């Protein structure tokens, strides 16, 4: 977005027309890695349930361990990534994750699979995944220059949004044909391939700070100084996020929207299959409608933002979130035509949610100083994803105690709160402080 100044950072030495092509290896690596990650997550869940007979509580623990690093280690990982945002880091993290998942494939072939093994792999592979995702974002300014950051990050988000909708369905079909073990093996190969592809990416040297080599040696001279330096860098990411007021308000808006979505996601299956009694076939059709909506959103987000302006399209997207969510309330009030209301709502939700995600990701990257990309993005993820478990638990409890309608109303209301916060962030785009 041209009206918001980008933080000073490196400029790619290539001619401007060649810069978009510089990011293609990162875009391809991210897409292949995300495909492998989505397939592996589904295959692990199927293995746990079908082979090991995991209960709902055990599956909850498995999923929690997979995201634990995201919440606990996100900011420290952001500090480490900012110190060395290199393709080698992405390579090592990807190969580490592939190696961990391959142990599950091997042990499965030996018929020695166990839940504790899956727990350990989920936690460690999740940590490697956080490193990969943070490094992929942090390396963008060094790949295409600061003036292309928003565009490339938006395309990365667009591709990942589509993959998150399409690949699980494809992986499910593959599990039905080949089984969970072979699907996990293929997904692991995709993760390794994604890590190797990134070596084709050409990047500039990291931005040099004012700190001298002697300063670095002095700070690293004792563990206490190194510890203080580490937390000082982590605090810098938090402080920078707070000081860039539009970015700070956007983060709060995303937290509200994620909280609402998590509360609804916790009851969605129960609402469709039990409350409305629509059956598995209708549920599958609704998932397909959402995937088609997401695909549509990914195709129109960047072109519409380029033609009409990112702020205008982003405003329209967030304003549509509450009324689209409210179509689920209409379905509850009109159960005879619930399939039509839910189908329309699911498709439109895919369109506006992916459009909002893609454009907001690009704008947030443009507002973030390149040298702090890892720390600031990790801090934002920790905040925005940290509310998801609370939303899931709260939505389930609210539906159990008061019924599905109040839980859906809470989802609509939180979308409205998030939309207002994001709109206020966009109302004064020149107020960003760097």
Automatic annotation (TrEMBL):
Membrane-spanning ranges: 61-82, 89-110, 116-140, 161-180, 186-207, 252-276, 282-302, 314-333, 339-361, 382-399, 405-426
Region span, Disordered: 1-21
Compartment(s): Cell membrane
Gene Ontology CC terms: plasma membrane
Keywords: Cell membrane, Membrane, Transmembrane, Transmembrane helix
Membrane topology: Multi-pass membrane protein
CDD domains assigned: MFS_MefA_like
This protein's record includes keyword Membrane: yes
One example GO MF annotation: transmembrane transporter activity
PANTHER family: INTEGRAL MEMBRANE EFFLUX PROTEIN-RELATED, MAJOR FACILITATOR SUPERFAMILY ASSOCIATED DOMAIN-CONTAINING PROTEIN
Name of the molecule in the record: Major Facilitator Superfamily protein
Organism for this UniProt entry: Micrococcus terreus
Highest classification ranks of the organism: Bacteria, Bacillati, Actinomycetota, Actinomycetes, Micrococcales
């Amino acid at each position: 977005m041209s009206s918001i100044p980008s933080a000073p950072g490196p400029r790619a030495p290539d001619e401007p027309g060649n810069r978009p092509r510089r990011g293609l290896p990162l875009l391809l690596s991210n897409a292949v890695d995300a495909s492998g990650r989505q397939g592996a997550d589904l295959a692990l869940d199927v293995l746990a349930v079908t082979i090991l007979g995991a209960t709902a509580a055990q599956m909850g623990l498995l999923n929690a361990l997979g995201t634990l690093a995201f919440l606990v280690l996100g900011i420290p990982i952001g500090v480490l990534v900012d110190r060395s945002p290199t393709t080698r880091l992405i390579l090592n993290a990807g190969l580490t994750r592939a190696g961990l998942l391959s142990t599950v494939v091997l042990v499965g072939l030996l018929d020695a699979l166990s839940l504790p093994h899956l727990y350990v792999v989920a936690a460690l592979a999740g940590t490697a995944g956080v490193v990969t995702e943070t490094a992929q974002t942090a390396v963008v300014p060094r790949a295409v220059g600061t003036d292309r950051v928003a565009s490339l990050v938006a395309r990365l988000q667009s591709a990942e949004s589509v993959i998150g909708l399409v690949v699980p369905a494809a992986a499910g079909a593959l599990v039905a044909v080949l089984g969970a073990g072979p699907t996990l093996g293929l997904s692991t190969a995709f993760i390794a391939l994604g890590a190797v592809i990134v070596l084709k990416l050409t990047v500039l040297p990291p931005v040099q700070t004012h700190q001298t080599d002697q300063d670095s040696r002095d700070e690293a001279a004792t563990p206490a100084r190194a510890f203080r330096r580490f937390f000082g860098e982590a605090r810098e990411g938090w402080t920078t996020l707070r000081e860039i007021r539009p970015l700070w308000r956007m983060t709060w808006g995303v937290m509200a929207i994620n909280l609402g979505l998590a509360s609804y996601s916790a009851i969605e299956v129960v609402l469709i299959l039990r409350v409305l009694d629509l059956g598995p076939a209708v549920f599958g059709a609704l998932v397909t409608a959402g995937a088609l909506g997401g695909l549509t959103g990914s195709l129109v987000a960047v072109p519409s933002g380029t033609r009409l302006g990112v702020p205008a399209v982003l405003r329209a997207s967030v304003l549509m979130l509450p009324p689209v969510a409210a179509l689920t309330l209409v379905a509850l009030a009109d159960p005879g035509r619930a399939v039509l209301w839910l189908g329309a709502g699911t498709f439109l939700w895919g369109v506006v949610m992916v459009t909002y995600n893609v454009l907001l990701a690009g704008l947030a990257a443009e507002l973030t100083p390149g040298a702090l990309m890892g720390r600031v993005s990790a801090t934002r993820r920790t905040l925005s994803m940290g509310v998801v478990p609370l939303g899931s638990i709260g939505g389930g409890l609210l539906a159990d105690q008061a019924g599905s309608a109040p839980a859906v109303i809470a989802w609509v209301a939180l979308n409205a709160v998030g939309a207002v916060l994001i709109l206020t962030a966009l109302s004064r785009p020149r107020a960003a402080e760097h």
